[in-house]
Amino acid sequence: MFDPDLTPHKTSNIPITSVRQPMPWKLRAGVRYADRFLPRLRGTGAGEMRPSSRDVLHDPLQDERWDLELDLEWQMNGRVDTQSVHYAGLNKIIFEPSNGDPEFFVAFPNEYVPFTEVDKHWRDQLSVRLGGTYNVLPGQIGLSSGLHYETRGVDPAYMQIDFWPLARLGVHGGVIVRLARRIDLVLSYAHIFQETLVVAAPPHRSRIEIGEERYEGDEVRDVREIDKEVGTLVDRAGTGMQVLEEEPLKDPDAVARFEQPITQTTVTRPPYIVNAGTYRSAFDVLAVGLNVHF
Questions:
Q1: Are 106 and 93 in contact (CB under 8 A)?
Q2: Which tens digit of pLDDT belongs to each residue from 158-194?
Q3: What are the boundaries of each domain within the chain?
Q4: Can you give 173-218 as a three-state secondary structure string?
Q5: Mean pLDDT highest for which of 76-80, 96-100, 185-189, 213-217?
Q6: Residue 231: left if φ>0, alpha if ψ -120 to 50, beta else—which one?
């Protein structure tokens, strides 16, 4: 739990009984074409790569001039809408004010809310991969290259730093070198470009207005507005000691909606919306490996 007026304490003494989150499913299909020096064996060729098979084993580096492969994958991440963390018994969360005041605690979880719900709002993703290899010296050296693209896998309003499935484009390259009859050295590199996502802070309203609307009626309502704009007092205690100074974001992709998971809320202490900001990233991947043929 973040609060600029408090010194952080570990909560490792609170037993977690379970973490519940649906697991995504994947559906994948692909097609490959190879320009062989000799025609493949008659039949399906299903036993080519099995050591126990009587068929002649296929060696792509030696038997092919080049190949091209296209893969499609549907990732059903949309099943993951919420993560639920359940706790055991009544425990204490300690709060130590940073100004030296005496520490205090709250019981957590209480008998009414023995769990924390974390919004995820993931989305289904489509991945497309296209690549191939050209054997410049058949049986000795092959060069590979490829591209891949993935659609965005998260609702921008709930983007967080823990999960980065943004729309991405990958550029790949590699080389395979036969060191011995049964050993290949494989070197590969990829650079992955990811989109930049801009998530704006919600509209400004006072914490009193937000709290009153949140607790209006018999049930606690979701209120996705919070006082976190320039010049706003942001400490949860309402003492007016902390002021937000960053400028508002322009032309955002979404307005932030992710609430900080906290233990207790009141009319004067509603939760914060904590995922506003600019998300920018890229990846460089270098891999080295050995293929051993049995």
A1: yes
A2: 999 888 889 999 999 999 999 988 899 999 999 999 9
A3: 1-22+76-119, 26-39+48-72+121-196, 202-275
A4: EEEEEEEECCEEEEEEEEEEEECCEEEECCCCCCHHHHHHHHCCCC
A5: 185-189
A6: left
47-56 long-range contacts (CB < 8 A, ≥24 apart) are 51/294
pLDDT tens digits, one per residue of 240-271:
556 555 566 678 999 888 887 765 566 666 67
What pTM was computed for the model? 0.74
